[in-house]
Amino acid sequence: MGPGPRGLRCCKRDLKAGEVLDDYGMYMTYGEAVNVHEMSEQRYLPEGLLRAVSSQRDITKDAVLTYDDVDLPPNRLADRLRPSNIGTSVMKLAGGAPRGSGLTALIFLATRTLVSLIRTILDGTAFIKQFFINHRVQPNV
After folding, report:
1. 23 or 65: whose pLDDT is higher?
2. Is residue 96 over pLDDT 90?
3. What per-residue string of b and e applies to 55-89 under the rule 16 or more CB within 10 Å gives b?
4. d(CA 61, CA 28)
5. What is the CATH number of domain 1-74?
6. How many alpha carbons fall within 13 Å on the CB side of residue 140?
7. Domain segments of the chain as ranges
8. Which pLDDT belongs to residue 45?
9. What is the pTM of this model?
């Protein structure tokens, strides 16, 4: 998992506190891309987690949405499995980036692999869902 771009959401218009944000391609937000490190450091809200969130405060047009700006739905699986959350928690347990060799380096590499796999699954799920929405196909579940 390298420092590639990640998608975030910006406000198309001023938002009022308590507004529930609409989905992709609608009227409240638009997408931008930033470096993965900036995404984590600034706590930007990933575009895949936009659905069913509400604004905690008034937010101005063109502002980048952060986790601090919104209330996430309770007990949503995507929030609990978000790779950045998993990576941060495990890295703290592992003592940060690998120093030398041994168990810490092994845990670090295993964590990177796991985070990459989960990110791929979440991105794929969002893509498939959007495909069905765009093509008005009802999946047989």
Report:
1. 65
2. no
3. beeebeeeebbebebbeeeeeeeeeeebbbebbee
4. 9
5. 3.90.1210.10
6. 0
7. 1-74, 81-135
8. 86
9. 0.55
